[in-house]
Amino acid sequence: MYDPRGVLELLDQAQPGHTLPQRFYTDPALFEFDMSALLPRSWLMLGFEAELPDAGSYFAVDFGAHSVLLVRGRDGVIRGFHNVCRHRGAQLCAEGDGKLARIVCPYHKWTYDLDGRLVGAARMMESFEFASYGLVPLRVELVEGCIYVALTAAAPDFAPYREALIPFLQPYRLRSARLAHQSVLLEKANWKLVMENARECYHCATSHPELKLSFPVVFNKGVTLADGAQQAAYTDTLQRLQLPAGPVAGSWWHIARYPLNAGVDSLSMTGRAVVAQRLFDTQGERIGGLRWATEPNSFCHAFVDYAFMFCAIPVGPQETRVISKWLVPAEAREGVDYRLEDLLEVWTKTNLQDRDLAENNQRGVNSLGYRPGPYSERAEDLVIRFSDWYRHTALEAARAQRSPSAATGAQVASAGA
After folding, report:
1. Quick one: DSSP state of residue 337?
2. Distance in angstroms (rounded) separating the CA atoms of residues 320 and 310
3. pLDDT in tens, 149-206
4. Cβ proximity of 404 and 43 under 8 Å
5. pLDDT given at position 407
6. Checking DSSP bridges between strand 289-294 and strand 298-302, what pairing results, if any?
7. Helices (H) and strands (E) in the chain, counts
8. Which of 25, 238, 308, 384 is at 20 to 30 A from 259, Cα to Cα?
9. Would you say the pTM of this structure is higher than 0.85?
């Protein structure tokens, strides 16, 4: 069990622009703090509307002890619920996806309609009020086909992010796209190390040979460094197509468009589009990629022919599940309009390389020799943003939970390296 006062003491030791004290990456009590106090103050990207095409379509995702259920209702509305029965608290749906007519608890068969109303509870007393025991709702926001969920009302105002993201995403038709593939990768590293790795390309030139064939791997303060002529031509193309370039950012989100390498149409092993159809028909104009990312756990990229999502889900103090999703135009047919192996190759190899990097990072952080080190302001600007967000949000969460009766010292009060 963590002590909010101990968390505050550790946060006092955290230096801006540096990695966190060791225990934030290793300690079970600090992991419990992240899951029970920090994540509930966040917006979590879980997937896409395209994954819930029909009434009764659902998917369930576990965030540590918290399980989230997303369902499309008979009225077409996508709703989110805590994946917990109101009878005795059993988990309603196993993690995964499918289609159902009603939500039925596997324990005692309490039954809920797709809008969360309790409609069946056998052998209850005559005075039992069904209306009082509907599923506990979650905050759900849909933006141009993307699904975001907040576990509590403590998550920040979503409106500024929505307003910023819409003009960037609108041309890509993600609402009508189709999920082509999903992969799950288990990484033996703390989720913050996984996300720090995902927030920078300092390592890309030497660690991602497949990615750098198409993707520009040199950045300065979050902006791609292209040569002058290429950058001028790219800027001119965006202006001619009236596309916002960015970057634009809030405290917990970041959006930017970027050029791909010279002569490249999409992020692939060849630099050519891997899907015959287009999410965004630019009439042959090269518009590079679009990246949008949210703290604490996701980033996405969209190209003319497909979109990619990366989502890191904490599992344990030194274990993280990485879910990746690929969207293609709805009309694209596997084996005819694209080969799945071509669609997946670059990101799959990049994910495996990043897993090895994060796990190696964790092994070093576990050592007695670990000391917090400085980030590069030029190459790790987005990592600094992530670290600043974490420290600020953790500070708010710990202060909110601090109380005079909290247990002292033994849980997390002592300082890490």
Report:
1. T
2. 12
3. 999 999 999 999 999 999 999 999 999 999 999 999 999 999 999 999 999 999 999 9
4. no
5. 39
6. antiparallel
7. 9, 19
8. 384
9. yes
- What pLDDT is recorded for position 25? 98
pLDDT band at 219 (very low <50, low <70, confident <90, very high): low
DSSP string, 129-176: -GGGGPPPB-EEEEETTEEEEESSTTSPP-HHHHHHHHHHHGGG-GGG
Q: Give 224's strand partners.
A: 219
Residues 29/35, Cβ–Cβ less than 8 Å: no
Angle at 225 between CA 221 and CA 230, to 5 degrees: 150
Give the separation between CA 17 and CA 413, rounded to whole angstroms.
Answer: 23
* Secondary structure in 3-state letters for the chain: CCCHHHHHHHHHHCCCCECCCCHHHHCHHHHHHHHHHHHHHCEEEEEEHHHCCCCCEEEEEEECCEEEEEEECCCCCEEEEECECCCCCCECCCCEEEECCCEECCCCCCEECCCCCEEECCCCCCCCCHHHHCCCECEEEEECCEEEEECCCCCCCCHHHHHHHHHHHHHHCHHHCEEEEEEEEEECCCHHHHHHHHCCCCCHHHHCCCHHHCCCCCEECCEECCCHHHHHHHHHHHHHCCCCCCCEEECCEEEEEECCCCCCCCCCCCCCCCCCCCCCCCCCCCCCEEEEEECCCEEEEECCCCEEEEEEEEEECCEEEEEEEEEECCCCCECCCECHHHHHHHHHHHHHHHHHHHHHHHHHHCCCCCCCCECCCCCCHHHHHHHHHHHHHHHHHHHHHCCCCCCCCCCCCCCCC
* Beta strands at 248-250 and 253-258: parallel, antiparallel or unpaired: antiparallel
- Residue 357 banded pLDDT, cuts 50, 70, 90: very high
pLDDT at 280: 95
Contact between residue 143 and residue 162 where contact means Cβ atoms under 8 Å apart: yes
pLDDT tens, 285-294?
999 999 999 9
Q: Is 81 exposed, middle or buried (0-12, 13-18, 19+ CB in 10 A)?
A: buried
The distance of Cα 183 from the centroid of its chain, to the nearest Å, equals: 14
pLDDT digits (tens, 9 = 90+) for 264-299: 999 999 999 999 999 999 988 999 999 999 999 999
pLDDT at 227: 61
Task: State the amino acid at position 79 in one-letter form.
Answer: R
